[in-house]
Design goal:
Elements (H helix, E strand, L loop, with lengths): L7 E5 L6 H6 L3 E3 L2 E4 L2 E4 L6 H11 L4 E3 L3 H12 L5 E5 L7 H10 L6 E5 L4 H16 L4 H14 L1 E6 L3 H5 L4 H7 L6 E7 L4 E8 L2 H16 L4 E8 L3 H14 L1 E9 L2 H4 L6 E8 L14
Parallel strand pairs: 1-2, 1-6, 6-7, 11-12
Antiparallel strand pairs: 3-4, 3-5, 8-9, 8-13, 9-10, 11-13
Length: about 300
Amino acid sequence: MTHGRSCTLVVDGGADLPEDLVRQYHIQVVPLTVHFGAESYQSGVTITPAEFYQRLKARGEFPTTSQPSVGDYVAAYQRAAEHGLPILSLHLSSGLSGSYNAARAACSLLPHLDITQVDTMTLSGEMSLQVLVAAEMAERGLPVAEICDTLRAINARSHLYFTIDKLDYLRKGGRIGRVAGAVGGLLGIRPIVTVDKSTGTYIAVGKARSFRRAVEEVAQRIINEVGEGNEVSLMVLEGYCPEQVAHVVALLRSRLNVIWFHHLHVNPSLGAHVGPDALGVAYFPGPLPYLARDVVAAD
């Protein structure tokens, strides 16, 4: 039995997590799968983000994705159970993927295990905020019920905004939905997208006439919502667009007091739906519960 920890975390591949923190917190990640035609790769395992985005840019391919199977979750829960602790299983929004339902089916096959499942109602960096807080609380030995209450409170205050230079990947992946209505048939319009917390699906909340202006709109929305000069915890995500990342980080640092910061490439299973020219920012106003102010913020 793992000394002191209250539960073992199982997380699906819908979260974008720093690899060092996955190791530090002993998080078990159940990856989604990326398909290039007949070729299949486990996202972040058998294909790295660097390899994935290099291939997209070089070949102009449109990959597809698939969620973990019920069997994948059964195996993950059985591995997690070896620690002798309750299992807390966190999932990307059921409004965007069937991963949560597959996990529920797996849970029904393992009635002897103590598994609590959470639909985070979001994904990527915003989901990661919940995962990392849960991991720290588990490390401190706090009970699963208290962790779940805290995650609901985080979800109520956190936000994710992202923008993309082209809608092709959302369209090809069947995720265009309500985003298309915001831009209609207008050429050169880039949407600003978030996740509707009531449905866990994408919605467009703004638009701009260039990718750079859309990135600036993302920054301005966050500045307005957090308040000039106030503390904020940030996770910046990109496909592969380093110039736009530098631009949005500079804008946010100049107007907000960034006390916790991570910058990651969107994992391939999510990148398949947004493409390389994609940028997102997940944020929480003020300090994240239980997480220390991060020295990376000074990076």
